[in-house]
Amino acid sequence: MDLVVVGSVGLDDVETPFGKRERALGGSANFFSLAASFFTRVGFVGVIGTDYPAEGVELLKSRNVDVRGLEQVEGPTFRWAGKYGYDLNQRETLLTELGVFGDFSPTLPEDYATAKYLFLGNIHPALQLDVLDQAKGAEFIAMDTMNFWIEGTPDALKQVLGRVHALLINDSEARELTGESNIVKAALAIEQMGPHLIVIKRGEYGALIYQKGQFFFAPAFPLEDVVDPTGAGDCFAGGFMGYIARHDDTSWDALCQATIAGSTMASYSVEKFSVDRLVDLDPAAIAQRAERFRQLTDFSPLRPLD
Amino acid sequence: MDLVVVGSVGLDDVETPFGKRERALGGSANFFSLAASFFTRVGFVGVIGTDYPAEGVELLKSRNVDVRGLEQVEGPTFRWAGKYGYDLNQRETLLTELGVFGDFSPTLPEDYATAKYLFLGNIHPALQLDVLDQAKGAEFIAMDTMNFWIEGTPDALKQVLGRVHALLINDSEARELTGESNIVKAALAIEQMGPHLIVIKRGEYGALIYQKGQFFFAPAFPLEDVVDPTGAGDCFAGGFMGYIARHDDTSWDALCQATIAGSTMASYSVEKFSVDRLVDLDPAAIAQRAERFRQLTDFSPLRPLD
Q: Of A82, B103, B139, B174, whose CB neighbour count within 10 A is largest?
């Protein structure tokens, strides 16, 4: 096992201008592991209730995701309901019911604990710390977080930040975390909190990574039809970490490639509801879109001015 | 004369979180022509009042801008006052006084009318049409516009759109013009209105160009200190059109390079108030930043998945 993810598993009710889905497979660990599964074998740590459809677990297995870390316990699965507005950039959360996720205490199977690459999905910082204590073999740890923890549990969050190598975060949350409106200053401020790699997700504007004075930018893929943005950030993280783990390479060059891998998975994810687009993807399509990403920003050096 | 610009010339009061300037040189034609002057000789069409500082005109001359199309008439120069909030993305217009710009009737000197490249700055569409009628030699015409004309004079604007080759526009205005929230759909809708090249300016998120099914994306340069965003879009346009006119090349490859040239000029422009940063720039600095733009998005092809 090279890559482990700990995160939420849920059943989502999602409404966008393009349709509506109920009890669709969701949660950060689902999106992450399905996206990462195209690159490497993933160990999945999460919890589901007795109401979780068996097909959801079968889907993970069919993608060769290791589900020994996925517990099923008595009670309802985590539920989330949200509605996206016309421009898909704003979403309203209509419902959050923790269910069995409320008592989640992640336990890493022994060979998960020795995995070199670890992703801490967007869960309570106390749980993230708990996982960090178990993950004795982790050499490259990335995490996600959100405004809820930035506002609600800042001290625990700062402890986690002090122990990880990379933070993946939305731009608005990077601004909130640091109090810096300028995104360069925000990245520098996060660097002071611990992570040496900062990955800022900007939705329809793409993503950027920062490490030791260097920046790399990836645009979002220009899609005419975005059906459901739910999970795009988790798919980005899955592609990003999956690529790194597959090649066991955290050089700057590999991190830039991983950003494109992540952007590619995110761009596919939003084309259908829930995890549907990840299910019918194949490696050739991923390689093809990654190459189209190259063309999107590729240009010949400018001709001289004098 | 290869490149002509028609636009506003103003005296701006600008307040940002980083300071305040009064009666600073501003207006789309000023920013445009100073940025373009690093690439080619520009013919300047605009109007100033008797209160306009002589240094403003001298500055243009010192940059080899042709000011025979700049009229000075009795009355006050166009005035604009604005205030930027903490994140610099929102600005409030505090004052707009047209002054002599209210009776502006652009007249192109004879050799301007035969220029191959023409930029119609963000002015009343009726004036843009008037210029189009005079610019008999123009083979590549680009224009800018804004929400004020989209809402106020949509019919005249559509006439202009039907007669130009390129539209440079902010993303929010592209959405407003087309009623399309998705930026790909917005570009396709604008294409139907006339321009075959659509350049969408996204402020801190960079710029993208679209032509016949092809996209190119440029990030904004990651600056730690953005002092004054006023005129950034006009500097982008100046660098973009200046590059094209200098090389007399509208191939896709040249348009991508021109997008970087524009992004480079915009990125410098915002480092100081008004046109101050354009004054102390040199070609070596422009070449250097353009090369840094390359590094921002450059990556090796992804390693194979199977």
A: B174
User: Is there a domain that residue B303 lies in?
Assistant: no
Residues A182-223: tens digit of each pLDDT = 999 999 999 999 999 999 999 999 999 999 999 999 999 999
Residue A121 within any structural domain of the chain: yes
ipTM at complex level: 0.94
CB pairs under 8 A between A and B: 124
The answer to the question of residue A306 being in a domain is no
Cα three-residue angle B54-B13-B59, rounded to 5 degrees? 25
pLDDT at position B118 over 80: yes
| Residue of chain A whose alpha carbon sits nearest to that of B220 | A217
Residue B306 has pLDDT above 90, yes or no: no
Q: What pLDDT was estimated at residue B266?
A: 98
Q: Do B257 and A296 touch (CB under 8 A)?
A: no
Nearest CA in chain A to B226: A182
Average pLDDT, chain A: 96
Tens digit of pLDDT for each residue in A14-25? 999 999 999 999
Higher pLDDT, B294 or A85: B294
| Structural domain harbouring A183 | 3-297
User: What does the alpha-carbon distance between residue B1 and residue A296 come to, in Å, rounded to a whole number?
Assistant: 33
Q: Do B215 and A222 touch (CB under 8 A)?
A: yes
Torsions phi, psi for A246 (to 5 deg): -55, -45
Q: Which of residues 170-199 of B touch A (CB under 8 A)?
A: 175, 181-185, 188
Looking at residues B18-43, what average pLDDT do you find? Answer: 97
Chain B environment of A39 (Cβ under 8 Å): 305
pLDDT grade for A28, boundaries at 50, 70 and 90: very high
Residue from the list A217, A287, A306 with its beta carbon closest to the beta carbon of B296 = A217
Q: Do A183 and B222 touch (CB under 8 A)?
A: yes
Reported as type and span, the H/E element at residue A34 is helix A28-36
Closest by CA to B252, choosing from B213, B288, B220, B221, is B213
The closest CB to that of A224, out of B185, B205, B304, belongs to B185
φ, ψ of residue B55 in degrees (nearest 5)? -60, -30
Phi/psi for A196 (5° steps) reads -90, -15
> B222: exposed, middle or buried (C-beta count within 10 Å: 0-12, 13-18, 19+)?
middle
Q: Is residue A302 part of a domain?
A: no
Number of domains in chain A: 1
pTM for the model: 0.96
Check which CATH number belongs to the domain holding B284 and give it: 3.40.1190.20
Query: A294 touching B, CB under 8 A?
Result: yes
Instruction: Report the SS3 class of residue B186.
Output: helix
- Cβ–Cβ contact A285 with B under 8 A: no
User: Is there a contact between A299 and B223 if contact means CB atoms under 8 Å apart?
Assistant: no
* Sign of the alpha-carbon dihedral angle for B269, B273, B274, B275: negative
What pLDDT does B234 receive?
A: 97
Of B184, B253, B260, the CB nearest to A222: B184
